[in-house]
Structure formats: structure tokens, C-alpha cells
Amino acid sequence: MILRNLTVLGSTGSIGVSTLDVVARHPERFRVKALTAQNRVERLLEQCLAFQPEYAVMLDRASAERLQSEISARRLPIRVLSGQDGLEFVASLPGIDTVVAAIVGAAGLRPTLAAARSGKRVLLANKETLVMAGRLFMDTVREHGATLLPIDSEHNAIFQALPPAYSGDLAQAGVRRILLTASGGPFRNTPLDALDQVTPEQACAHPNWVMGRKISVDSATMMNKGLEVIEAHWLFGAAAEQIQVVIHPQSVIHSMVEYVDGSVIAQLGNPDMRTPIAYALSFPERIEAGVSPVDLFRIATLNFDSPDLVRFPCLSLAYQALKAGGTGPAILNAANEVAVDSFLARELPFTAIPRLIEHVLGTVGTEPVRSLDDVLQADRNARAAALEWRALSGKASRASVTARK
Ligand code: NAD
Ligand code: MG
Question: How far is the CA of 10 from the centre of ligand 1 (A)?
């Protein structure tokens, strides 16, 4: 048994909390050396008290100061840092071997890259890193001898269903296709003309999974599955045509690999992120994760359907961005983040999310990616275009409301 020293990036989020739940079950296997959060001081303080890390990082400087005074008052030997530099510092500490990348969105890119550059075992939940900078990130992993283990449940399932020594070449492994399952989210059966009116609360009430707000909205639009297609492309070397999305409302099969001999290998489990997190933490071993066994007699039926691209235009937009290549997926990701934030802030209706993204993909030109700067520039350009569209469409919808009165 190897003792692993961990940094958990985004420890106060849904994946971060599930990670610490698994870690706490195995004190002999894991030491938490660093925890990070954006601005939730109380939650990070609680985690510091429970896990006694060497470092605690808050992105927000004022939050870091508040945490520092709490830590000082208790005379704890924990160094408090802040900002992007602090995140990158704890992602590359010499004293750690494993980084759980569980920050949400583009904010996770730099610290996750820093972990890869330092040759760590990178347990990747932050799919946006691969969407924005897939080639760059995969090259960094290879060049610096890092190990990449997917936490996203579908990719963790595919990782489990591929041959153990999978080299990145599907044809050589005898694989025909990857079957990426999707629940279809909370609006799979909602009448199309009611989608305009759905609220953030409804969008965040996922039928099977409890997750952060951004990925919950992504699941409701199925952009999450689009991002996962791009994630699978980079992780497993699969062309867009080799990745088939399969609607599977029960979320029991977490994905499948179809081989040329007709075999299909699936990974099943209850929808609980502690299973893929535990597998990534302990790979190649297996550890107890606190997850109850699948009760096949209770589940009884598994259903499958093809995705409805009229209902879920975000899925097509993601395939389109992947095929465009270069900065296309980074533009898609940035536009989506602005759209989701705006929907959560009740500034845009749900159905405006794909409209905004389509507009941005059509206006911001796709460029080749030579460096991280190219990715960050595309991200900025796409956000600017998205905010401009939002301002104009906001005015237009206010005008139409006034006209109706
Ligand atoms: P969340 O919103 O619950 O948590 C996000 C974490 O990131 C928090 O700790 C927060 O403090 C931190 N954070 C947010 N913005 C930050 C910023 N600008 N800088 C630094 N830290 C910041 O999100 P989540 O649901 O845990 O998702 C995390 C990642 O894992 C996402 O990329 C998501 O797509 C992926 N993922 C989540 C699930 C799930 O079940 N929740 C499943 C698969 C993949
Ligand atoms: Mg997933």
C-alpha cells in the first residue's frame, strides 16, 4: 500500500466534499497536504480542522485574510495563501504526489496544468481543462511524466472498460466505438414550448445526481455531454465519429466500450461520485468508497434512447466545436460559462443558452492553438462576444415586453 499525499483543488465543492469523504475512510492511505476554495471560509475552515493540511488556499484575498485570522486564533500550523499563484503553488508542491482537480470551469485550467507540469498524478474532474486546452494538456502530461486518471463518471467507466495497458490507440486495442451514456437531465420529457420558462431551481434538480450548479445546468442543456465528448476525444484518442452518446435515464451504466468482435463492456454502479473518485484515488487497487451496492432487482429495467438534437442543440454545438478544432472548444466553453452564469442570475432564459453559444461560435474566429496564451485569448474574446450578445438580447427582450404592454 502506497501512502498518497494529496492536494484537493476545489475541496469545498461537490467533488471536493465527496473526495474528502472517501479519504476520511482511509487515513492509513491518504494525507491531505493542501485544500483550496474560492471564497467559502467557514467550509474550508471546517475541512482544515478535520484534515490538518499544511496549506489552505483561497482564491479571494479578503476570504484568505478571514481564514488566516481563524487559523491564527486556533494556533494551527497551516499556511494560508491566496490567488491564482497560491493555487498553482499547492498544485505543484514537491511534497505531494496526487492532485485532485475539482475546481469548476475555466478557473481550473492553470492549476491543473501546473499539476501536470510537475509530473503529479492528476485526478481530473475539471473537464473544462481538457475542453479548453486538450492537446496542450495531454502533451504536458506526456512530457512531464504525469499520470492522468479521470474522475468524471463516464470517463472513469471507459477507463475501466478499456484494456489495462491502453496506449491511446483505439484501433490497436480493437475498439470500434465509445458509448457515452447520458441521463438526459431534468428536462428530457418537458414539453419543448415550456423550456423557455424553466427556472434555475428546476434546472439544478437533477433526477439522479447531486452536483454543483454549473454542471447541473450543463446537464439540463446536455452541454455537459458535449463537453464530455470533447473530454473523451482527448483522454482516449477517439475521433468525434467514434463517440456515440446514448440516453440512459437510470444512470446505472456509466458508459461502455464497444469492441470489433461485438463485445460491449460496461461499468455499472449507483450514481455516486465516490465510486469513480475512489478508483482514481487508489488505482490500480480498489478501496471501500461508502457506496451501497447496485440492487439490480430494484432497478429491474435499463432503458436506452438516441439523443434528441432539437431538444438539446448544445450537444450539436459541442460536436461542431470539436470538429472545428484549434480554439473552437475553448470558445464553446467560455460562451457556455457566460450563458450558464446569466441563466443562473436570471438574466437569460434557459433557451437562450444555445442561442448565445451558437452566436459566439459564429462570430469569434477559430485559431490554431500554439500556446496557453492562444487559449486564454480565445477565452477572453469569446467572453467579450457573449457579454455583448447578452447586453443586446437583454435590451431586445425588454423592448418586446414593453411593446406587448
Ligand atoms: P462546485 O461548484 O460544487 O465546486 C467548485 C469548487 O471550485 C469549489 O470548491 C469552489 O470553491 C471552487 N471554485 C469555484 N470557482 C473558483 C475559482 N474561480 N477559482 C478557484 N476555485 C474556484 O462544482 P462541482 O460540481 O464539484 O464540479 C467541479 C468540477 O468537477 C467541474 O469541472 C465539473 O464539471 C466536474 N464534475 C463534477 C461532477 C459532480 O458530480 N459534481 C461530476 C463530474 C465532473
Ligand atoms: Mg460526467
Answer: 6
